[in-house]
Design brief:
- The protein contains 2 helices and no strands.
- Helix 1 packs antiparallel against helix 2.
Length: 65
Amino acid sequence: MENGVTVTDEDIRAAKRAWRRAVDGHAASERVAMLYDSYRRLVSTQAQQIADDFRRRHGSEPGVA
């Protein structure tokens, strides 16, 4: 990846587990929200990585029809 960081499936699973533990453990709502936001961002970043990789392999650039 260009930025040197790759989000893995394990990263996603770990973030989801942390968020769920906070929810199940009745953590402060701010902590639950922060962990959910981290989880959501990782999912979004991984989706973008997958799309970028697909475009690279298939020779299309973002925004080009």
